[in-house]
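Shipment paperwork, digital attachment
Item: protein structure file
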Amino acid sequence: MTLTNSLPDGPKISRFLRLVKFITQPVKYVEDFAQIYGDRFTIWGSKDTHIIYFSQPQALEQIFTADPQHFRSGTASGGLAFLLGDNSLILLDGDRHQRQRQLLTPPFHGERMRAYGQDIREIADHVSNEWTIGKPFNIRNSLQEITLRVILRVVFGLDQGQRFQELQHLLSSVLDFMGSPLMSGALFFGFLRKDLGAWSPWGQVMRLLQQIDRLIYALIAERRSETQQNRQDILSLMMAARDADGQPMSDQELRDELMTLLVAGHETTASALTWAFYWIDRLPEVGEKLLQELDTIGINSDPSSIAKLPYLTAVCQETLRIYPIVMNGVPRIVKTPIEIMGYKIPEGNVIISSIYLAHHRPEVYPNPKQFKPERFLERQFSPYEYLPFGGGNRRCIGLAFAQYEMKIVLATILSHFQLSLVNKRPVYPVRRGFTVAPPAGMRMIARLR
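Attachment content:
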């Protein structure tokens, strides 16, 4: 391909109108542009700041394998600082980002992660056993309770007591509030982020976050004063971790990473699980195959055996393919000019890896809008074709844990209940804060197997 300084073609549209569509029609937003301009396009901004979308595997490989020094990725996510804090892994670049990744990665791998399997199953059992058989209930709310309780037990080491109840209530409140259409808009329009007192929407969010901070810092102080060293929750492992210079994380760093794990780790998994139950009901043959596979190992199998089941794994993979919860990879602001697919992209421009468009390329995924788990049994996809957790040095560190949790929760619930949608009409993704998710009001009915 001939190297050119010109950027790919694309829409020239006012930022306001663009953001309105981005917020209210997140899937149509990228599909419409891709249909008109192809699999790479530029959204022309003011002056020399433009947003360039890529979705072909060759382009994503070039982006993900490029020297991270080419980009400022943490700065590009600065809109999350009010929630996650300035020390969040998501908001860091360079050496600080690398340091935090090394400190945070160990608890999410291998034996440590598998040790949480029984906790996940117990919580899924406890919450689902509270359903009233035959009575409609909000499936997302129920799954969000499961994933929040998993985070509180596995990450914070909390399973009961006043602090557990307060954190559960406050976190549910702030995330539900931020998932509302008004607050989703506030995340992208600065003029809506005005604290006009306790009764204003943004003021309520700020006060909820202050209460959450108070509880988190009290928990950190309590853990620092404990003499027993045998805790296995992720907070305790984070407190014990040391960087290359032998330094631990500060209280502020711990707080910001805990908020990152809470926000990135439970809302997203609840949305993915909601989609999985939606597809299992929409396509009965998928549910039948899952049950046949679960029957081969028995209801009380070791969680690690459940996690290895091939069809269950494929259902989770296809769920994350067809409607990825995060539609784009982390934005990368170009620091030094870089060539991607023959385009020389100047400093100051923003590169977007479109996860959604990459997952809907017909040459990679024939009939991409069809839910077909078998495609993951028939071939292996590269990390530039299948990337629900992003890629390169910005790939989500919790991806293995999220997939493990999805499989254990699905298997636990499907072993005991058949879930059916109350409304059989197709549903489509809607904006929920920085993510896309099933509509909030989806209701299902549980029946005993």
